[in-house]
Amino acid sequence: MFARSVRGSCRIRVTTQSRVGSRSLATVTDVPPSRYPSDPQRVVKKEDGQKVAIYTAVLVNRNPLLTRKPTAFENAYYAYQARIERALHNPLPYDFYFKPGTQLELQFDKEEQERDRRAFGRSATPSPRIKTEEETRASEEDGADALSALEMQQQEEVKTMPREHESDRTNNVQSLDRQGPRNVYLLVLAKDDAGKERWRFPQAPVTTRENLFESVQNYLRSPFGVGMDTWVVSRNPIGVYRAPSVAKAAENLQDYLFFYKAHILAGQARPDGKNILDFAWLNKEEIRTRVDQDYWAGVKDMISDF
What we know:
306 residues, alpha+beta, 9 strands, elongated
């Protein structure tokens, strides 16, 4: 009985730990450190004798907040399809749905005429399923009260929020509300092996105690990423990049970066001022202007164009 209870308690503890480690939560502040400073970095040797240092990088993506504006070709296509649908669809038996002379009938007649004008132009012939302008005026005289109520309703102003956020006008690249119709990614300013400051995606070395996916999870639970509620899409990387390293050329050492994709759900990044000096949320075109050309050639196909 004692052995069975011990096995059951161990099974519960292992399952609970695996569930907690499956996601980084911004609300959790007492996450124990999973990476020890004394852990050596994982280095493997290729068949040709070259040593490879393994790193993991994460593309933290904020999905679009707004629907993007259609292009000129898309507008022409949608207008063409709307005209075909307008010409071929069955007429609505509005006499069955609207009582003659009521406000709803007048509103339906006006909207039908406007839809015909948008589809076929201002010189479009009124459809036989709706009234002509003379009949509409006669109906308006009979229902003056309904018409005045309709005009008062149409005169009510509907205020919509602007598509451009305040952070776009002030060029605040650290705001998650900027570039609403676009995908934006987290870019950090950090120092490389030579001590030079460079813009890149968040990355961390893989130690001998962890695999690639565990390295990403531990990095997102570090002081830099603990303030973000993130979700790593897959346990498999989406791409790999061979980073040229002049400082490690004498040691015959090559850096390999395995990229993972993640989504931010809430929170914000927290640079520590030592390893991470600054951060920004940028779209694809803005990332290209900040990173090195060789780095851009290796990561550009992993980033969304929109």
